[in-house]
Design goal:
Number of domains: 2
CATH topology of the largest domain: Rossmann fold
Strand order of the largest sheet: 6-7-8-3-9-10
Distance between the termini: 32 Å
Structural class: alpha/beta
Strand content: 25-35%
CATH class of the largest domain: Alpha Beta
Number of strands: 14
Radius of gyration: 23 Å
Length: 311
């Protein structure tokens, strides 16, 4: 099994009863132990792809294998290898976390004694053991998200799929989730993440696929894809106030973000010293500089022609 891909999708197609062709021959391969991002705009086909892979949506054609197990031919065996964390919180708020995990394990035929041991282990990993006997509705938003991951891990999945796991949560909770997911991946579980927070994918994932209008339009190592960008954006904090007329720097685009901030886009190969010299000649003194936006977002906009959105 270690030599088999964690997920192998070949020419996957899905046409709904209303005639909408959601997937138009999608193929991708996720290696064991990878942390993989699936990105795409609203309606691109991400949710359909995840639905088919987790056996919640029926395919129209194509093949899905999880660690070499054909999902269509051996659904039960394949699903024992997969854990799913949906976007929406879908456990009973009036149940206790310990019961939620034990009952979930029971659906997969795990004996109660073993389920109790696993539940304690997963709740401790999720830093929720002290909440094991509290009503789940009393948990904070971040705790509920961690409980969802703990529940999915009860079956010891080799492949964990997360559909927008940090949607609608604040940055503190999101970064806590990142830490949890990194630990899950470091322990050997292959992780596939769909997200509309592009900095999340860039921070966590080693490989990615971008889907648009039912087709994979780009896939490969994160670093390789980001290297395709030939433009970088910066925000320059200026001492004093920007002049009414900005200088012209050949090859670069300058815009006043506000009276004290200069927005500049320039080719990656352009010498920054030339930019600073031109600004100094125009009596513009740069106090500090920061990256304007993450490079993955620039790549996404360039490939699809539109900003990333939630799906």
């Amino acid at each position: 099994m270690p030599n088999l891909p964690a997920l192998e999708i070949t020419d996957l197609r899905k046409t709904y009863d209303n005639g909408v062709e959601a997937l138009k021959g999608v193929s991708l391969r996720v290696e064991p132990g990878d942390f993989y991002a699936l990105l795409g705009p609203n309606g691109a086909g991400k949710s359909t792809l995840i639905g088919i892979t987790s056996s919640l949506v029926n395919k129209s054609a194509g093949e899905v294998k999880v660690f070499g197990v054909d999902l269509h031919a051996n659904r039960s065996e394949a699903m024992r290898l997969v854990g799913l964390v949906p976007q929406e919180i879908n456990f009973n708020m009036f149940e206790q976390p310990l019961d939620i995990l034990v009952n979930y394990a029971g659906f997969y035929g795990i004996p109660r004694a073993e389920a109790l041991v696993r539940a304690e282990e997963e709740l401790k990993k999720a830093q929720l053991w002290d909440k094991a006997r509290k009503m789940s509705r009393t948990l904070s938003g971040g705790m509920k998200r961690r409980l969802m991951i703990a529940r999915a891990m009860m079956t010891r999945p080799k492949l964990l799929i997360l559909d927008e796991p940090t949607a609608g949560v604040d940055i503190e909770i999101r970064r806590g989730m990142w830490k949890t997911l990194k630990e899950v991946n470091a322990a050997g579980t292959t992780v596939i993440l769909t997200t509309h927070y592009l900095e999340e994918a860039e921070s966590l994932c080693r490989n990615l696929a971008i889907i648009d209008k039912g087709r994979i339009i780009e896939q490969g190592p994160m670093k390789t894809l980001l290297a395709k960008l030939d433009v970088e954006g910066f925000l320059l904090d200026i001492d004093g106030t920007l002049p009414a007329t900005l200088p012209t720097i050949e090859g670069a685009t300058l815009l006043a973000e506000d009276a004290h901030t200069l927005d500049i886009e320039m080719p990656r190969e352009m010498d920054l010293n030339r930019v600073f010299a031109a600004l100094a000649a125009a009596n513009i003194r740069v106090r500090s500089m920061r990256t304007k936006s993450n490079r993955l977002e620039e790549l996404f906009v360039r490939l699809t022609g539109q900003p990333e959105q939630a799906a």
